[in-house]
Request: fold
Amino acid sequence: MDNSSGVGVLDKAVLILNALEAGPASLASLVQATGLARPTAHRLAVALEHHRLVHRDAQGRFILGPRLAELAVAAGEDRLLAIAQPVLAQLRDHTGESAQLYRRQGDVRVCVAAAERSSGLRDTVPVGSALPMTAGSAAQVLLAWEEPDRLHRGLRGAKFEAATLAAVRRRGWAQSVGEREPGVGSVSAPIRGAGGRVIAAISVSGPLERLTRSPGRLHAAAVMAAAEKITEAMRRTAT
Reply:
């Protein structure tokens, strides 16, 4: 067996998963593709199905299971956080403001990473905080590139309008002034994953005394550059 790990049953299970990468397969097709004995192929495929690593389609053929997609998402998120953390620190140091990374989870956005300003007035958003999708520049970014029906649903009760999101799409960044919290401003830009899909928003936030009523004029270029740096690094590590 090529690339044997020395753990026979695991090597055989990986043979099955590798065979299913090409698409749905009957038991006979699995036997042919893997060279495994029919009873062995069946026993392992059913065991993998139990763990949701393999699934059956409507025709009863074996296909890759949903657990692999869940693991892929987790791996992608870990990679995103590893890449983003030093960039957040650089963005904080460059702008002098707290920097955050947000991902959307249903009707909220969650702060998954942050680099805090060390002293003075700051906008502290603890990692793990769930904030509404109805206010703030990160919410605008995470909503602006959604499918039209999801976008319009997301505008219900929002403090921004469709025209705001159109402007975000046009210029590639968003700003908010006292939208989520009085006296606080922020600037955000999208981080993109496979196929150009927006997977996260990177932000800087702070008091309006420093960010002014036009925070984008101060920090949009730096935030967009940070977003592009993370997007490019995600693209490189995915290949």
